[in-house]
Automatic annotation (TrEMBL):
Record CDD domains: SET
Residues covered by the SET domain: 4-112
SUPFAM superfamilies for this protein: SET domain
Identification of the protein by name: SET domain-containing protein-lysine N-methyltransferase
Record-linked InterPro entries: SET_dom, SET_dom_sf
UniProt GO molecular function: methyltransferase activity
GO biological process: methylation
Swiss-Prot/TrEMBL keywords: Methyltransferase, Transferase
Length: 203
């Protein structure tokens, strides 16, 4: 579920739609969290679909650490990519504002978090040498993303958290300890879907 202070806006014909803040969303705020209205599909279901629906589902979903395709039920599916993303993923099935997101600012993710099935070619961005998101980007950029998430987490208890009640019960104790400075945050590597290991397990 997306943070309530967001809305869908049309950007242009090249990009399409995006998600924008309607009020200040401070650094450390949960901007999105997986909830029980989101849908999960395995590869066999995806393969059973006709080409049109399969293409749409893959376009608007991401893959979790188990390889399931997760389709968000709300405007979260329209969050665009940026190499300088305003949101950062965590291993706890939620994302945080990586910086203060002001009214009118777009909420963005680095699609490298999402275990893409194939390379995603992007518009060039000032300040980044990257132009393509690769399926294994987590393996290369996790130190940077871990630091970004840990920095955001420092503000977790200092800001309003309207989505906090949706944190999965199995993560509550750990997230609480991290927010209090009593535990270290786990790496985003926990979000990686290892295709080779998955294939080996079923062979």
């Amino acid at each position: 579920m997306m943070h309530p202070h967001t809305e869908l806006r049309f950007i242009n014909e090249s990009i399409g739609y995006g998600v924008f803040a309607t009020k200040l969303i401070p650094k450390g705020t949960i901007t999105w969290i997986l909830d029980d209205l989101d849908q999960a599909f395995d590869e066999s279901y995806i393969a059973s679909l006709d080409a049109v629906r399969r293409e749409r589902l893959i376009k608007y979903s991401y893959r979790d650490d188990r390889g399931l395709y997760i389709l968000c039920w709300d405007i979260a599916r329209y969050v665009n990519h940026s190499f300088h993303s305003s949101c950062i993923a965590t291993p706890y099935k939620f994302e945080l504002a990586a910086r203060d997101i002001y009214p009118g600012d777009e909420l963005t993710d680095d699609y490298g978090y999402f275990n893409l099935d194939k390379p995603f070619y992007c518009f060039p961005e000032r300040g980044s040498a990257r132009t393509t998101v690769m399926p294994d980007d987590i393996l290369h950029y996790y130190p940077e993303w871990d630091h970004k998430a840990a920095e955001a987490m420092l503000s977790f208890n200092c800001v309003e958290q309207p989505l906090k009640h949706l944190i999965d019960h199995k993560f509550i104790a750990k997230v609480t300890a991290i927010a209090r400075g009593e535990a270290k945050m786990d790496s985003i590597l926990a979000c990686y879907y290892d295709r080779a290991a998955a294939l080996k397990a079923v062979s």
